[in-house]
Amino acid sequence: MTLTDQRTEGAAVTSRVNGSLDAFLRERIAGENDPAAREVLTTLRDFTMNGGKRIRPLFCYWGWRGAGGSPDDPDVITVAAALELFHTAALIHDDIIDNSDLRRGRPTIHLALDKWHAAQGWRGESRAFGQSGALLTGNACLVWSEEMFHGSPLVTRRERARQLFARLRTSAVYGEFLDVVGETRGGLLSDALKIIRHKTASYTVRYPLQIGGALAGADDAVLAAYDTFGLLVGEAFQLRDDLMGLFGTSELTGKDASDDARKGKPTALIAVARKLADPEQHARLDQLYGVDQLGPDDLAELRDVVRATGAPAVIEQIIRDRHAGAVRALREAGLQASAVTELESLAAASVHRER
Description:
Helix content is 79%, strand content 1%. The protein is mainly alpha-helical. A hairpin with a 2-residue loop joins strand 1 and strand 2. The protein is flat.
């Protein structure tokens, strides 16, 4: 298979996953008679279909292909789409927890429902309605992701894939809890990396990749290589996200540039900055990071202080090290050559990105 063929195959996978998601959500909308419920489901469909890089489905698919899975099997696409629907649920709930108003350059689900409630002139507090409605919408996505996953005939034959899907969900919830706890007490680099490992790395790369491999009947050696590769790439992915969270723009990231700083997210970047800071820099970090009313000038000063500590360069080196280790593990796994090439490309795109 040529490089062009692989790129075409990858683009086709994204298109097929989008088609599966769209058909699933349209079916739910069509089957709902209540106008309010139809409105919420339409909002959910728009949120799901307009944006997102489909990273988890792609890692699942190429994990499948690397272990010898056929490119023509439609059932693996159903599983991949189920992982994206779980990701949708995680984003909705994460935005409620963080009280974020912007996601993928558009209003978050809870803000969209807040505005809809206000436009209807209904009784009650619009903000509370939006958060409650979004919470339930996210819960629906969790239920439907499981329905899609277990609806694939591939899954019924692969107990290991079911176990990995359970671990994915547990890890994501546990990581979110650690993140919430971390906001209350700051943290060390080791604490930040633990959050990354559970909240992002495991459910973004590690388990999707292993699920794809398990569906194709991968042996223990291949799944172990996927485990190493997935954790390292997933950690590098989130470390890049930490850098973009502080130094990126909303135009590029689709999120408010002050969100992480305002919430006092226990990121690896800030943990390293605090470790390297001199007393004056440390004091300014404590005064600026985690302040709810963080203005543009405050954000600019915070960025300057973090840069001055040298923390961004340290994080960049960690990203490079994680990426290099992941590639080594992948090349030693004895996978299908075309899948190795594509997984390396996905890894590079995940850790060297601007959004």
